[in-house]
Prior knowledge:
Helix content: 55-70%
Amino acid sequence: MADTTNLCIRIDRNLKDEADSVFNALGMNLTTAITVFVRQVVRQKKIPFEISLDAGGGRKVAMRDAMAASERIWQASAQNGTDSMTIEEIDAEIALARRERKAREEL
Length: 107
């Protein structure tokens, strides 16, 4: 088990409740969502979304969907052991799959 630490933050109760509802619908809890955010910050070395004065609701929905998709992809890659593959290894896997598909089609 990874060495963990506690994080204590203050947040508006209504905001937390609304966030809990969204994250629950996405199959995660607030702790997991914050962990996903922090992992993306560490990986990208930046805040993983645009921060602006534009209050467009569509952007918020799109970002939520993108973050959820990113988490699903990350979880799937961790489950199947591909989360640490290099780009060269990924390219080799794709090339192999294409060769196998072509061989099946030629039968």
